[in-house]
Specification:
About 25% of the residues lie in helices and about 25% in strands. The protein is an alpha/beta fold.
């Protein structure tokens, strides 16, 4: 099975009203459909742009106000997914669950369904500055194009959770990210390559670019979209099927071939998924 994916290097910039956010999102969706894309990925924390709208006194909104946009966020992406017959992994949005904030990835299906995956591993900033709580379990999601998982940024730095996603049937990991310097960007990027090799899966990742001058902890962003493959003969030698230009506002597109993944799992130069030593170290179960 083959299908086409795209990842958005989302340009963060201060805005003054919801409609500006909706217009920007719609632009990227329309751009993706012009390339015949079936899956579109947005980055982590893209909705922090809404905090720059500000309150009645002109001050930027605190992170605790972001859940107030949840209904509008879901209505916008549900409408776009249906209108353009597109699966949209709409980055992450902060939702309130049981009185706590959770950084949650959303997958919008064309038929109106919404799948959600809270981030499982939180950075110090998310915990100490934004008082967020981690998710409590990993789900994988069935689509007409196979089984996928949504693992956000820091999650990709933990081999165990990606191993679990693969064991549950995921062939593609969508990884929305947000990093504020090159150290963080390369940390996520190199780990994505490692996870693709270890589990013989595709990783589709992207990050925010630009700057929110009025929003704390979102003033700097270093991002680049990439479609990452295992390092084996059917794929590009460097394991990069496509990538964007660092820190530019753009869209990256590539075709994923799931049959190639199965070929390398069975008879590749190395068969890392099949050859794991569960007699020496525990499997995800």
């Amino acid at each position: 099975m083959k299908y086409r994916v795209a990842a958005v290097q989302y340009q963060l910039q201060d805005i003054s009203e919801w409609e500006q956010f909706a217009d920007q999102v719609t632009h990227y969706v329309k751009n993706a459909t012009e390339y015949g894309v079936q899956f579109l990925l947005f980055p982590e924390f893209m909705t922090t742009q809404l905090l720059s709208i500000g309150d009645e006194h002109g001050a930027p909104l605190p992170i605790t106000r972001l859940p107030e946009f949840t209904v509008a966020y879901e209505e916008l992406f549900r409408k776009l997914a249906a209108e353009y017959d597109l699966h949209i992994a709409a980055g992450t949005h902060i939702v309130e669950v049981g009185g706590t904030l959770r950084n949650t990835a959303h997958l919008f299906h064309p038929d109106g369904r919404i799948d959600r995956q809270p981030k499982l591993h939180l950075t110090p900033t998310e915990v100490t500055e934004w008082q967020m709580s981690p998710g409590e379990g990993l789900e994988v999601f069935d689509t007409p194009y196979g089984t996928i998982a949504l693992l956000t940024c820091y999650d990709i730095e933990f081999p165990e959770i990606v191993r679990m996603a693969r064991a549950k049937g995921a062939d593609v990991i969508f990884c929305p990210s947000c990093t504020d310097d090159r150290h963080g960007f390369y940390r996520v990027r190199y780990c994505a390559h490692a996870r693709a090799v270890e589990n013989q899966v595709y990783i589709v990742t992207t990050g925010t670019v630009g700057s929110l001058r009025r929003v704390d902890f979102m003033r700097a962003n270093v991002g680049q979209a990439a479609i990452i493959t295992p390092n084996d003969i059917p794929f590009p030698p460097a394991g990069i099927m496509a990538q964007g230009e660092l820190n530019n506002d753009m869209l990256v597109v590539a075709d994923l071939d799931l049959d190639l993944l199965e070929d390398v799992r069975q008879s590749g130069s190395v068969t890392t998924w099949r050859d794991r030593r569960t007699d020496l170290y525990p499997d995800w179960r």
